[in-house]
Amino acid sequence: MSSADSEAEMAAPIRYSYAPFLTSENNIVVLVGAGASHDLGIPMGEKLSEAVAELVPRSIESSSSTHPQAAALWQLLRSRIADNDLEKWLTELAGLRDSTSIISGVTAGGASLVVSSSMPMMSGGGSNAPVLREAPFLFKCVCAATRDVIQGAVQDDREFRTRAGELYRSLVEDVMRHNGGGRFLIFTTNYDNAIDAFADSEAPHCAFVDGFTSGDTQRWDPRIFGRPSGPKCIFQMKLHGSVNFYRDQKGSVFKVSRSPVTSIELKAGDEGLLYPTQTKAISADPYTVYYGYLGESLRYARRFISIGYSYGDDHLRAQVVNALRTNGRDIRALVVGEFKKGNPFDGYGDRITILSPRTHPFSRGDTGQPLRDEVKKFLEGV
């Protein structure tokens, strides 16, 4: 097969069926959010947004000759979104970049701000077009700044792997012990690589599968989920994308494993894959595969553990709630977190145990022992 044929095959949509051992009736499903990375020193929430906001202008200034209107668009975006909210910035920029359908518009700051059927966004024409055409570039700047902030928090790769191991080892071992077959199925909304780092620390005794092939530059192939190797395996699915996920100009999705990412030669057209909350309903891998597995696995699972996720993403919130509602296996859930939009689990009674992260933090050492004890108790009888 020629290199051109190989690239075409990689870029083409891959047909697959859900791996049966990931949707079995005895499965235990884990979902973690930003709160799960707090103990690793990775900034989250407003702190992450503030750090990103400091870096973006530097990227804009360094490219001012080729993107002269990017600064104006960044100022417009910040005036449109008064608070520091990374998800909203990405959502606005992705909406403009993807030319979401317009239903109404107003004028502000010299550009036309409109509301689409799915999100607030900016659009316009005529004299505004040069500014608004900078959206793809600015989206890349925000993604790159997010990557740099998160990776900058990891001062030493070896130390980070050690800390990630201390944080996740008990949870992984307890779930594997009760899951049968040595499986650990985890979904995460985090952009960081904490679980990847833990998996690295466990290799080669435990396999790691996330839908990408092996090597420095790993290509997306969801068929990998159907052929894991080894008696123990961690399956990870990143629902909001990752600092090391990219899509090239031909549409092929790849992952860069080496750290820092800048040690790999990225091409000008390569685009980071961070999924804004309100735009993930579009049909694009790897999100659609991960999202599908979440729903399928929860419909047949016996136990569900959710740590550090606030359920602020309406798409993901609905997917979890609907899957639990249609689960016919008397599923039980252990939820550790605080909710952005009210408790999504009202009406489930004693099937759902909700704990506060203040009394049961997901942490290393003695402070994390209360939650580790609760997890062990929760998994008894699976």
Brief summary of the model shown:
By secondary structure, this protein is α/β, with parallel strands linked by helices. The chain is built from eleven helices and 14 strands.
CATH superfamily of the largest domain: TPP-binding domain
CATH fold field value of the largest domain = Rossmann fold
What kind of sheet is the major sheet? 7 strands, parallel
Strand fraction band? 15-25%
Unreliable spans are: 1-15, 100-126
| Overall shape | globular
Q: How far apart are the termini?
A: 48 Å
Into which percent range does the helicity of residues fall? 25-40%
Explained architecture:
By secondary structure, the chain is of the alpha/beta class. The protein has two domains: 3-9 and 20-42 and 157-379, TPP-binding domain (Rossmann fold); 46-152, no CATH class. The chain is built from eleven helices and 14 strands. Helix 7 runs parallel beside helix 11 (369-379). It is globular and about 65 Å long. The chain starts with a helix and ends with a helix. 41% of the residues are buried.
Question: What's the helix and strand layout?
Answer:
Layout: H1 3-11, E1 28-32, H2 45-62, H3 70-80, H4 86-97, E2 102-108, E3 111-116, E4 120-122, H5 129-132, H6 135-152, H7 157-179, E5 183-188, H8 194-202, E6 207-209, E7 217-219, E8 233-238, E9 241-247, E10 253-256, E11 271-274, H9 287-300, E12 303-307, H10 314-326, E13 332-336, E14 352-355, H11 369-379
Helix pairs in contact: 2-6, 4-6, 7-8, 7-11, 9-10
